[in-house]
Batch of 2 targets.
Target 1
Amino acid sequence: MQREPSREGRPRVLHFITRLGLGGAESVALSIARGLASEFDSGLYAIRGVAADEVGLAMARDCTAAGLPVFTGSRLPLKAGGLVAAGVHAARVMRSFAPEIVHLHTEIPEAAYAVMAAISHHGRGAALVRTIHNSVYWHFWPRLGRWCERRMRASHVACVSRDARSAFDRHRAAAGAGPLPAPPIIIHNGVPAPAGRRSSTREGPVRILFAGRFEPEKGTDLLPEIVAKVRAPASGCELVIHGQGRHGPALQALAGSPPPGWSIRVAPPTAQLRERMAEFDLLLMPSRFEGLGLVAVEALRAGLVVVGTDAPGLREALPPSYPWRARAGDPGSFASELQRALDAVESWPEAVALGCAFALEQFDLASMLRSYAALYRRAGAV
């Protein structure tokens, strides 16, 4: 699609994302684009297109409503020509949108940009901003990651957590890409005000939520063993698992034969997660690693109890003194923390107040937007 010239004084920012769909990085990119609309004209290059589910279609509607143009790429598998196609499409998008700033979110967008830089002159005058969204970085294809890094030498880098910055620093050193124009900075993801607050007087079963990809980093393979070890209270436990991924069949089997006292339902990703979060009492996050663990922050803001882990990234989303923090990757430890939480309902109000205050202080949306606006200016494009 063709883009009209931006108004004087409003530079264009083109966000490279993997797809419009489930994912914290994609949500953050959309929040930045919408939140800075008064200062920057933004567009999105969704390399893998729009996910054909509720979340992807809702994000596409949000972009239309906000006047954000969305460019889509090829769905070819990356190792079967998709990476080259992503770079070719990126060059076309750069020519059409003509951004002053390119903002890359996660590894697939970085790879698309690096291929584009290797085969095309388009975009060479644009400032390059990157957000590192994970604490385990380029682990799936490290040699490609190092090659890409050497084609992004003049990057202005933001990291969503201290663990994400450590991962980036290790990767940059291994790539031999040399010094950055400025040291990486930490910009915590901002969370908007919750759509509602959990009621502390709810009766009936304890309503428990998991929301995220059904992948090893999220610890969804541990959920069957965790719930099997936990004794449900007399009122019972109702667990709703929202998401999709490789662990889906095992979770469906768990829902079909839950432990005594448990009711379990597996559902697709939902675009109304923030609006529905206050319907629950407790959030499970058995993650092995995160970039930050944005859903934990959203839950804290909504007044939920969070049972999490000490996983990289996630440990920064919870207050240092927060209870119910298990060892990452250890289902027995997680089950013990969940049991302690279920057995200590009287301590929930204090923990909820502690978590909510921490989330308000550390993960303010307006602060995130100010930080990215400042980073864009430091990148030299304004």
Target 2
Amino acid sequence: MEIIGETLRNPVTNGRKAAPARLGAIAVVGLGYWGPNWVRNLNHLGCAERVIACDLDAGRRERIAQLYPNTKTTSHFDRALADPEVEGVIIATPVGTHYEMARRALEADKSVLVEKPLATSPAEATDLVELARDRGRVLMVGHTFEYSAPVVKLRDIVASGELGEIFYISSTRANLGLLQHDVNVAWDLAVHDISIILMAMGQVPEAVSCHGESHYRRGIEDVALLTLHFPRGVLAFIHVSWLDPNKIRRTTVVGSRKMLVYDDTAPQEKIRVYDKRVDVQRYYDTFGDFQYSYRQGDIQIPRIDETEPLRLECEHFVDCIRNGATPRTDGLSGLRVVSVLHAASLSLRNGGRMTAVEIPPVGAL
């Protein structure tokens, strides 16, 4: 399966220093759950002369106006697109609207950041990638965890070979709520784990199998288990749920030499590397001589200097617009994740049958 390009392994700023010039204006569309966090970071960073916040709900607009008096609010998306000073648009609306709104922004010659997932199908994601390329605009997807210091550390440890040959990855992301109305739990929560696992593995799985069940809304699964099948027999298990009594954000990477646990809910020490493994006696004459030995070594806790991932993501988007750079989580990254989710959806509708991950070709890149 396709090996993910080097852009995935670049540092957040691709080694560049941020240009001092501020952008003319950035528009944030959607002020529900996540949009206000974008408005907050844009105001604190001061990376644009103006910040425009767009939402149909008057109460949400009023709240933003009270918190950030210098932010202009509007209910008209078209007005933001028609503003010649708007250089970037951040779309934080419901998933079903991502494609249409991102396409309209790109057609208006704006660079676009779309919250996860990029679109609801590989065909839509491919269209956005090609349109952004044709228009010469930045297309970025909000895979926020790829800007998290612990996740970057996890990727670096895996890439260094310290864990040895990767056997499998197990990830759990569960809590009580928030139940979504337009997408199931895989498209809402597993999208995070898929982006993290693809980042760590540096490649896309060959196939996916998925089981899930709906308990409250017919056709919208609130619990799901995905299995990602990578080359050389490497598996990744993802358990996601909106119906768990505990908030769990944990990823375990098991290698032939060491094992790593990333716990995002831990207040400190989010990454722990365990010097544990199973060894098989190399030579033996009889079955009675055969035995396993278990290594129980030290636990290493690497130092991690954390910065709010969304702040880094915000800075990166602005820097890419200024310099015409390719984002770490570019449109192709979004397409890969959407293609995995699409295969999982097909598997879910077919009783968990293993389904190939097919990534549509994107023009002549």
